[in-house]
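Table S2 (continued). Query chain:
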Amino acid sequence: MGVFSTGGVGIDLGSANVTICLENEGVVLREPSYVLTLRDDIDEIIAVGRDARQMLGRTPKDCTLLSPVQDGAVANVELTTAMLRRLSEKALGKRRALEKNRLVVSMSQGATRVERNALEEAVHAAGARRAALVRTSIAAAVGAGIPIEEPRGFLLVTIGGSTTEVCVMSMNGVVAARTMRTGSLALDEAIVRYIRREKKLIIGQRTAEDLKIDLGNAVLNPNLSKEKVALRGRDALSGKPSTVDITAEDIHKALLPPLENLVEDIRDAFENIPPELAEDILPNGLYLSGGGAQLEGLSDRLGELLHLNILVHENPQDDTALGACLIAANERLAQKLALSGCLIEV
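Corresponding output:
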């Protein structure tokens, strides 16, 4: 295949984060999928990634903070191109970083032809001359070490920022798949709504994400910390700065509705799996991947409801980028995935 020569690079282009993995080095960069531009001229880019996200909730009037990747698809080709170019140059430490490297970029299982064309355009415009797109679930499975080349079914659930993919794989291909437009960002939004409704306090998305990471738990148990944490924000009634106390139990209550929807979607997808494949999955269990898999107690909750053993890789948020990099570094594997339709040269 002409795509693959020297220097493999894998990129997980997500709605929440861009993760870049380099051959022989592993994951070297993970930054938020944000671009800060001038409000009157979005082509005038001020910052990308982490530098841009720092302005979330405090953007000047003449600037706007945009997310060029939404619901797992490229929403703005020009901004995605600029973000890819700048972050890849930061990761590799050189200009035109993608020009001489072989590149594999993740693509949502449910991507339409229009969305795929937009991604191809952005990858080419970013400077990649030898590139391929791979299904996100396949990349995550390779990164998590799932032996998808075997003639038996494996079930993988990948929870990203805005999408959740349920995928059954066998013999390097996708047998059945379902993509849902929900993910870890929905949990952040639920926390914002709960705090405003129950505590009469307005907080931003960044604060909500911090609360989810520090206090979030998918399972309510007596061991949840009863310690109160002071939370600062704006009073919903007076508009003045205010402080309220919050506990891990509050965050659990906030997460419960979107979590129930997410778990129900996963259970529905699982129940529609062909019986022959279900027989394979029962002893193998369910593999959980993506940044959303890091939520405390989520694997326990899924295991209890689905009556399956839940397996989570050591760093599930890196599975997709790592898998894409491994595919870029292994021409034989790439050829097999191309034959099954899971990898597309661009």
